[in-house]
Amino acid sequence: MIETASTALVLPRSLHRRITGHARSTWPREAVGLVGGVAAGVAQEVIALTNLATGSGRFFADPYEQFCALRRFEAEGLQPLAIYHSHPAGALEPSALDVDHGRRWQCLHLIVAVGRPDLPDGTCRAFHIAEDGAVHPARVLIADG
Q1: 30 has catalytic annotation
Q2: Domains in the chain and their CATH numbers?
Q3: Which of 12, 58, 138, 140 fits 145 for a cystine, CB–CB 3.0-4.6 Å?
Q4: pLDDT (tens digit per residue) in 95-110
């Protein structure tokens, strides 16, 4: 399990664009990746991961890529701040499957919308999913940089 004390994510605009670009490139499948940064919740790196899940509406990050990403964060002195994934044409709330899997990761969970006519691509929300499955909203600040 990955732990972080942050209840908010400061995401530089350049990293937000990378996440949104990744989500667009995998549409209509879900994108998945990790956000690393400092304990105060300031993101400094985004690593896109391969989604091994078949079909749309779910993700399963490549375990080896995930392992390598976490090792890279550790080598760079970064903490995993969030797991991001997209909901192509879907809600910005975590699904029941997201909650079930998210309980194992005590970092933030960032959901990014793409392909929704009512929202600009890249609209996102973050959540903390407690071990008991309770979902708590977290703040996301898209910052210059």
Answers
A1: yes
A2: 13-138 (3.40.140.10)
A3: 12
A4: 999 999 899 888 999 9
